[in-house]
Amino acid sequence: MAGYRGRFAPSPTGLLHAGSLVAALASWLDARAHHGVWLVRIEDVDLPRCEAGADQHILRQLADCGLHPDEPPTWQSRHATWYDQALTRLIEQHDAYACHCSRKDIEQAWAARGVVKARHQELVYPGTCRTSQRQASLSATTSFTAPTRSPAWRFKVPDDSLVSWVDRRLGACAQQVHTSVGDCVLRRADGVWAYQLAVVTDDARQGITHVVRGEDLADNTPRQILLQQALHWPTPVYLHTPLVRNAAGEKLSKQHGAPPLDTQRPANALAALAGAAHTLGLSRLNAQGAATPADALQPWVREWHHRWVLSLQSGSQ
Ligand code: GLU
Predict the structure, then answer these.
(1) Ligand 1 center to 7 CA (angstroms)
(2) CB distance 43 to ligand 1 below 6 Å
(3) How far apart are the first and last CA of the chain?
(4) Which of 8, 91, 179, 207 is most buried (most C-beta within 10 Å)?
(5) CB 208 within 8 A of CB 236
């Protein structure tokens, strides 16, 4: 497809593991099946969480697996000017506002309304700083930290924000963003750019037409669509890939101890690719046929083309 631009956007908080390779392989296959361009963007916007050298190691792992980007890789830590321009535009349009609330303030604001935070629960922002008369909206039982530090910046999610979109794999999806997520952070009080703003800005600036990524990110999509609309940027086509789970049924992740992939030897890279292909429902490798990752990839490109490009074009899926 002329003009197709896809990307793989790993966070270098660790090396590639069996789960992240699924998104890498799927995004590469989709770009190849569309005769498009495939980019790699290192999402190191939250530098303190990144692991030194993990970016180069990830690029090496991808190369070992035969997944070579068509343009030089980019690093989010070098895109601060883009994010700054996007945030300025949102502030000028009154689509973003400064927020002085700490986590504790948010918990207390909800507690004052009788809502107690469960462990690991992310509370929807109660909208305390949404209006300029912030003080007037404070509950008497809520003690807010004095706004001495820099504020965070939040996106003002429209009140009637029912976002519907069609994911190529998950089908019709919808989310009421205002009530289920609330006004998300664009820039944290410590100056770190938030994932939502960074990813939307980069996708637009890099002309990304198709996003292929893990299903754990699917519920971020509606927020990102609202941001794209506020910034008058096009919305890419989305495909969220299946997750790899450990024996306990948890999503494979660095936090859950997923081991980094050893891809140095072609046989190991092939085995890693075969695992990712299996998760994506692609055919098993023909052991005699594929001696290198490049040999294995070509049949999968054809299979992907039939499954995710041709069949969707003819409306059979
Ligand atoms: N950097 C994100 C991650 O590693 C992926 C972001 C995206 O693909 O939109 O989970």
Answers:
(1) 10
(2) yes
(3) 19
(4) 8
(5) yes
CB of 11 sitting under 6 A from ligand 1:
yes
Q: Is the CB of 10 under 6 A from ligand 1?
A: yes
What phi, psi does 316 have (nearest 5°)?
A: -90, -5
- Nearest to residue 153, comparing CAs of 123, 180, 191, 122? 191
Which residue, by CA, sits nearest to atom 5 of ligand 1?
9
From the number of C-beta atoms within 10 Å of its C-beta (0-12, 13-18, 19+), residue 18 rates as: middle
Enumerate residue ranges in the chain where pLDDT < 70.
2, 132-148, 286-288, 312-317
pLDDT tens digits along 123-162 = 899 999 997 544 434 433 344 445 557 899 999 999 988 9
Q: Is residue 268 within a helix (H) or strand (E), and if so which, with residue range?
A: helix 266-279
8 Å CB contact between 154 and 185: yes
Q: What is the pTM of this model?
A: 0.91
Q: Does ligand 1 lie within 6 Å of residue 213's CB atom?
A: yes
Ligand 1 nearest atom to the CA of residue 10, by list position: 4
Distance CA 26, CA 275 (A): 12
- The CB-side HSE value for 159 (13 A sphere, CA atoms) comes to 2
| Residue 132: C-alpha distances to residues 136, 281, 301 (Å) | 9, 52, 54
Measured CA distances, 40 to 63, 74, 196, 268 (Å): 11, 7, 18, 22
Query: Residue 140 to residues 42, 113, 143, 161: CA-CA distances in angstroms?
Result: 45, 11, 8, 30
Q: CB of 86 closer than 6 A to ligand 1?
A: no
Helix axes 18-33, 266-279, angle to 10 degrees: 80
